[in-house]
Design a protein that fits this description.
The complex is a heterodimer of chains A (about 350) and B (about 550). Chain A has helices at about 40-50, 90-100, 105-120, 135-145, 165-180, 190-200, 215-220, 225-230, 330-335, and strands at about 1-10, 15-25, 30-35, 55-60, 65, 75-80, 150-155, 185-190, 200-205, 210-215, 235-240, 240-245, 245-250, 250-255, 265-270, 275, 280-290, 295-305, 305-315, 325-330, 335-340. Chain A is an alpha+beta fold and about 350 residues long. In chain A, the strands form five sheets. Chain A has a six-stranded mixed beta sheet, sandwiched between helices. Chain A has a five-stranded antiparallel beta sheet with strand order 16-20-17-18-19. In chain A, β17 and β18 (about 295-305) form a beta hairpin. The longest helix of chain A is centred in the middle third of the chain and has 18 residues, at about 165-180. Chain A is elongated, with a radius of gyration of 25 Å. Chain B has 23 helices and six strands. In chain B, the strands form three sheets. Chain B has a two-stranded parallel sheet with strand order 1-2. Chain B has a two-stranded antiparallel ribbon with strand order 3-4. Chain B has a two-stranded antiparallel ribbon with strand order 5-6. In chain B, about 45% of the residues are buried. Helix content of chain B is about 70%, strand content about 0%. The chains are: A alpha+beta (about 350), B mainly alpha (about 550). The interface between A and B is medium-sized, with 26 and 23 residues.
């Protein structure tokens, strides 16, 4: 199990990591998700031992490894740009870790074969790594990181430099390889779909701080902050005001929960709204635009002076643009209160 | 001063002693008669006017002809796929790395009085064709050398220009020719101008070709420096010409640097999509043109190698064997044809060249490696920003100017190296240094810290990282740089012709002397020696290509 305790790091006086603590249990794949500059790669470098933290500890199975040099940690790292050794062929790259561990030639050859088979590159042993395509280089890098059987595998935006089509294809392959190997893994990405597809849990980083950590479903159901909701691509986020114990929102008054954080926002789930005035809450708005999306309609409504996005099943009958539409929702399901951090 | 600044000491000292001091001496010599003396001499001397005029004229005409042949070929290479395309690319690039004396000997082997064509004509009872010692010979050799520059610079650029733009122009009503003049040509202009200027610079400073193929009736600034120095020993006149040459090349190089900086801005990048040549309007004409061009690049070099193992002349005195295949010319490499102080056996010249090349490699690495190490560092110190252009200066200085500088500066105290055999390797190092640095820097830069980190993550101890990552990568780069220095040293002619001691000619110098001598055997020796020199330099360049890792290298 990997445990990070209050890791901090500054570059030129600017804080890059401001107190990160988290745990990754044995066999779990944890995605570190965040925009560029949020500190994900720095955190990875600290876990790898390539960078020392300013303060805080890295523990592996309860042992403090903060001062252990990278080559003695037994962790594997797949670099964003792969960092393949240009002077070694595919075999030479994948065998490198095994050779450093002093494995016999025969055992090394067998392990390399197994690793190449795992990533589907049998027969590539003696190819020049510089002549491989991006996807092939990515798989060589993965095989190289997997071959020495690291205790912890770290992947730094492993699909970052590939084009979209190739990424979707490789992401499911990568996910199944990680599951199959039951490797404890840290997976850095800025792409939420990639994180959802690969990880058991996702940690969202914002400006060097852990914004939220949880399963993909938890994050989707209960985003904790405005940042998390926005970063996950959610819409309908509105500011609120607290007046006499009530939360005033563009969607109407809501009962304020106890211990309401300052500057709280509300999130309206576009798909938790029904057509008609049956309640418990009714909302009426002017239909501004409608887009047919196969199984559903995507609508834009003008409610007073704000616009909200909603989704309705595609079998409902819609009025013409400009007409008023009556909608109902249950605040308990449709509304999520977000803290503004 | 930074921690690593002392690394710059050796290269800077080298440049100061062997570049700036000699050039300064040329300046001093030119201005001996007062500050205005060179100017009035330049303005009044009609001999100088003729030389300068011819230098510009032959360079301009050579450049125009090179473009006339290179541009259609560049277009076909950029837009079409055809069998033999790789062959044409490779064949056209070989001359560029060969020593001038090899090229001169190659044209001699094909079109010279004892060459394939004229021997065949003679045997058939025809009149021999005059080629050597004509203006045509100079032009043809310049085209042979420099077409590859046009092909590389223009066709690369051309293939990345989107044909969509041209298609857009034709949908807007432009005819094929209008599309070319109003759309294609303006877009190509930066690449075209840069290529043309580079070709012009090479033609302007061309020495061996003019001297050996043009003969004594054609004088450019370069050959005139040589005649004034070697034949007349008029050092002040030579110094004045060298000063003029220096100013011209400096101005041309500055313009070229400006142009090529603009060139690095990509217009529209796209992966080239090639059509088969059959799809072209005049496919047969194009195919014939490409085939002729390929033959033009291969024939002289092939002709040289073949001539070195073939006897063509029937010997009336019956001393030599019958015409046909022979290894006599190689067997005769140990013979000294004249047996006087101005000659040596080809075997001795090979020995001399190899010793000089070895010394050049050592000197070039000694100065080039520390300089490259400094330049390859991530953060550009002020020192590195200064060092970079300084190291490139010898590249923009003609070989004859460098050689003359040595003669003027290094034969008197405080630095009297006149009799020292180290003079030639010093000059070669000066010529090779820019190439060594330009090949080392990107290679050293390519060893990204990432690779060391990746090795550490795979369990490599710091010592193992050094042995498995740094040593092989740096070693390869240094080997490539050493080969560069070697190939340049064995092929260098201009500076060597001035400073080599008569009893120790290098391979190119002896080839020059042998070609000027009568006699079938002497000619055969020249062919054999040239073929060996071609193999040395060609082989060296081939090895460098092999050693190159992926997209590393700036040349």
């Amino acid at each position: 199990m990997l445990e990070l305790r209050d890791i901090t790091k500054q570059y030129d006086g600017k804080p890059v990591l401001a107190g990160i603590s988290l745990q990754v249990p044995q066999g779990e794949v944890l995605a570190l998700l965040g925009p560029s500059g949020s500190g994900k790669s720095t955190l990875l470098a600290i876990v790898a031992g390539l960078e020392p933290p300013d303060s805080g500890q890295v523990l592996w199975n309860g042992q403090d490894v903060t001062a252990v040099p990278p080559h003695q940690r037994g962790f594997g790292l797949m670099f964003q740009d792969y960092a393949l050794f240009p002077h070694r062929d595919v075999f030479g790259n994948v065998a490198f870790g095994l050779q450093m561990a002093g494995q016999s030639t025969a055992a090394t050859a067998a392990s390399v074969q197994a690793a190449l088979a795992l990533v589907g590159l049998q027969g590539f042993e003696h190819r020049d790594v510089n002549s491989l395509s991006g996807g092939e280089q990515q798989r060589v890098a993965l095989a190289r990181a997997l071959a020495p059987e690291p205790q912890l595998l770290m992947l730094d935006e492993p699909l970052g430099s590939l084009d979209r089509a190739l990424r979707t294809h490789l992401v499911s392959q990568l996910a199944s390889i990680l599951r199959q190997q039951q490797l404890t893994s840290l997976y850095v990405t800025h792409d939420q779909e990639e994180a959802y597809a690969i990880a058991d849990r996702v940690a969202i980083l914002n400006a060097g701080q852990l914004a939220q950590i949880g399963t993909p479903e938890q994050l989707y159901r209960k985003p904790a902050t405005v940042f998390v909701a926005r970063f996950l691509g959610m819409q309908n986020i509105f500011p609120t005001q607290l007046e006499a114990g009530k939360l005033m929102t563009p969607l109407g008054e809501l009962p304020a929960p106890p211990a309401l954080p300052g500057g709280a926002h509300v999130l309206l789930r576009p798909d938790a709204v029904r057509i008609g005035a049956q309640g418990p809450r009714v909302l009426s708005g002017v239909l501004l635009s409608k887009q047919f999306r196969g199984s559903r309609w995507q609508l834009e409504l003008g409610v007073q002076d704000t616009q909200i996005q909603i989704e309705l099943p595609s079998d409902v009958a819609l009025p013409a643009l400009g007409a008023t539409l009556q909608l109902s929702f249950d605040p308990a399901q449709a509304i999520q209160i977000l803290s503004n951090e | 001063m930074r921690r690593a600044a002392w690394l710059a000491l050796l290269p800077l000292l080298f440049l100061a002693l062997f570049y700036f001091y000699p050039l300064g001496s040329i300046f001093a010599l030119s201005f001996e008669g007062g500050w205005l003396a060179p100017l009035s001499k330049l303005l009044s001397d009609s001999g100088i006017h003729r030389v300068v005029g011819f230098t510009f004229w032959q360079a301009a005409l050579s450049t125009a002809l090179t473009l006339a042949i290179g541009l259609p070929a560049a277009h076909l290479l950029a837009r079409y796929e055809f069998p033999g395309k790789r062959l044409l690319r490779v064949a056209s690039s070989i001359p560029f790395v060969l020593p001038t004396l090899v090229v001169a000997a190659a044209f001699n082997a094909v079109l010279g009085p004892r060459g394939w064509l004229n021997q065949t004509l003679l045997a058939a009872g025809g009149a021999p064709l005059e080629f050597i010692n004509t203006f045509t010979a100079i032009l043809v050799a310049h085209i042979f050398y420099n077409t590859t520059i046009v092909l590389r610079m223009v066709s690369d650029f051309w293939s990345r220009l989107s044909p969509r733009i041209e298609q857009a122009a034709s949908t807007l009503g432009a005819s094929g020719w209008r599309v070319f003049t109003t759309v294609t040509l303006p877009m190509l202009a930066p690449a075209l101008a840069a290529a043309a200027l580079l070709v012009f610079i090479f033609n302007f400073t061309s020495f061996g070709v003019v001297l050996v193929l043009g003969g004594p009736q054609f004088a450019t600034i370069e050959t005139e420096i040589y005649y004034q120095t070697v034949a007349l020993f008029n050092l002040p006149a030579a110094a004045l010409l060298a000063l003029l040459q220096l100013l011209c090349t400096l101005a041309l190089t500055i313009v070229y640097t400006r142009l090529s900086a603009r060139l690095s801005r990509p217009v529209e990048q796209r992966a080239p999509r090639l059509r088969p040549l059959r799809a072209q309007h005049s496919a047969w004409l194009s195919a014939a043109f490409l085939a002729a061009l390929t033959v033009f690049f291969i024939a002289p070099l092939g002709g040289l190698a073949a001539r070195s193992v073939t006897r063509l002349e029937t010997d009336r005195r019956q001393q030599a064997g019958p015409p046909g295949f022979t290894l006599d010319y190689y067997r005769a490499l140990g013979d000294d044809p004249r047996n006087n102080i101005f000659f040596a056996s080809p075997a001795r010249a090979i020995q001399t060249s190899l010793v000089y090349a070895g010394a050049t490699v050592a000197l070039a690495l000694l100065t080039g490696v520390p300089a490259s190490w400094l330049l390859a560092q991530q953060e550009r110190t002020r020192l590195a920003r200064w060092l970079d252009p300084l190291l490139m200066l010898p590249l923009g200085t003609s070989a004859l100017t460098l050689g003359l500088g040595f003669i003027v500066a290094l034969d008197t105290p405080p630095l009297d190296l006149r009799a020292s055999p180290i003079l030639v390797p010093l000059a070669h190092t000066l010529v090779a240094l820019p190439f060594v640095v330009r090949s080392l820097v990107p290679a050293l830069r390519s060893i990204r810290p990432r690779l060391r980190q990746a090795a550490a993550m795979l369990g490599a101890t710091p010592r193992q990282v050094l042995l498995a990552i740094d040593v092989p990568l740096v070693g390869r780069a240094i080997l490539a740089a050493a080969l560069f220095a070697f190939a340049i040293s064995v092929g260098e002619f201009g500076a060597t012709a001035l400073i080599a001691r008569p009893e120790y000619p290098t391979m190119p110098v002896l080839i020059y002397r042998l070609l000027a001598q009568p006699g079938a055997l002497t000619y055969g020796q020249a062919m054999a020696l040239s073929t060996l020199l071609m193999l040395f330099t060609g082989g060296g360049m081939l090895l460098i290509e092999r050693l190159r890792i992926a997209d590393v290298g700036e040349f």
